[in-house]
Amino acid sequence: MQPSLPPDPDADLRRSLARHRAFATGLLVGMTGLLVGTYHMPPGYWTDMLQASAKAGVVGGIADWFAVTALFRRPLGLPIPHTAIVPNQKERLGRALGRFVSSHVFTEAEVRRVIGRLDLARILQKFLADPAAARPAALALAGSMPRLVASLEDGRARRFLVRLLPRIVSGPAGARLVARVLRAFVTSGRHQEVFSLAVGQLKILLAAREDRLREAIEARVRAEGGAVLGWLAGATVAKRILHAINTELEKVEPEDSELRAAFAAWLAQEIDRLETDPERAAAIGRVLREALSHPSVAAWLMDVWGRLRAALVADAARPDGRTVALLAGLFANAGRLLAEDEAARERLNRAAEGVLITLLPSAQSQLSDFIAGVVANWDAQTVAEKIELRVGRDLQYVRVNGTLVGFLVGGVLFALLNWAFGGVSH
Fold this sequence. Notes:
By secondary structure, the chain is mainly alpha-helical.
């Protein structure tokens, strides 16, 4: 059994063109029959008028048939000059069509009008707010994560990052970043946790080294006051000094201690200096640059990145992983933001419009070249057929009008000439 042919997408156009062509041709044949019939009618004024009208109608119908046919093919296959215009001029036609579409259809005003009617931000918001649509997008993005991360593993990229990172943090941006982190630290109260940890570690260190510290203080007393004073008061002085230190450390434990308040005030002052004092910002930048430039730190950063990369790739491969959940959550948050913030939607629409308008000149040129290239690659007969199928029906009305208008003009002209000259030969 032979395979069935695919359906013809232009079948309806072919039937419509054939129907209108048959009507125009039938009208011309009928006009010809009327002309022949007038030669068998009794002579007289009205017979002569009808014969003149029929002659003009036949001439008009044939002339318009020739003009319409000459657009797409050679009439009767004869090599008449300036016929088969469309096949012979397809490349010029393609270039002209491309320029017309790019310059008069794909215009800046039309693009702005279409974007304003579409409301791209609202379309994106509906997509992001729909979990059934956003989750597949999150899965696809997570699936591409391993390739994206692998692209960062190029040796040149890693060396570039190792050189670039110290330069970034050594400038004012590095100091601002440190200040921002410290300010968030203070706002969350974590600085007091760090202070408590430092005090606790100091107390543990003093307790572990208490005997050695006592011996060191006693030795110092003997060195300064002599052996007798050291023997009489060395132990007592050491004990009192250590007790005073522990007592002061105990005073630091309450949340409202003066030392804690002083630490918080000092930290706030240092943050302000990082943000406003260029010298302090430069000093912090030098410290960060030297630290990040050290081979041990660079090796540690690469080790951290390697572990993070492996964990990220493994998690991104899991449909129930944190990466997919995070991306889906980001999409949902973005959808809620666009739904609730009209200004955000307006900014997004304006941004999309700005991007498209910026790309428009290049797109117009490429669209014009694309249309010209497509038409140029078509077979000449294919070009003529595609155009005729789409405009041929209207062109058949040109034939019909030519036949009918010729008939009417022929009758009117006969009447005028007969009235003016008293008789005409036809």
